[in-house]
Write a structure and sequence with these properties.
Elements: E1 13-21, H1 27-35, E2 40-47, E3 52-58, H2 67-75, E4 80-86
Antiparallel strand pairs: 1-3, 1-4, 2-3
């Protein structure tokens, strides 16, 4: 969205989270804001009755270690409240 390009690597890292939006919050604007962060490679936002479900791809599994703290720190409550950072992994 913003023209930034970084080499993709095997350490690319996806996270899912739900934001309970403020009245008149805009999902497209939220996605653009998230894409502006250097650490973020891709953003997918789905708007539903419960809120905005966001899938964000980060360039490294080291950034961020705590998505909830990262998102709250970067966005505050501008778009709403982060209510469920979800993390799942499959271990062999």
């Amino acid at each position: 969205m913003n023209g930034k390009s970084k080499a993709s690597s095997t350490s690319d890292y996806y996270k899912f989270f739900l934001i309970k939006p403020k009245v008149n919050a805009n999902a497209k604007e939220l996605a653009k804001t998230l894409m502006a962060f250097d650490e973020v490679a891709e953003v997918y936002v789905t708007e539903g009755m419960a809120g905005f479900m966001v899938k964000a791809k980060f360039f490294s599994s080291d950034i961020p270690n705590n998505v909830e703290r990262y998102i709250k720190g970067k966005l505050g409550e501008r778009y709403g409240v982060l209510v469920s950072p979800l993390q799942y992994s499959k271990r062999g």
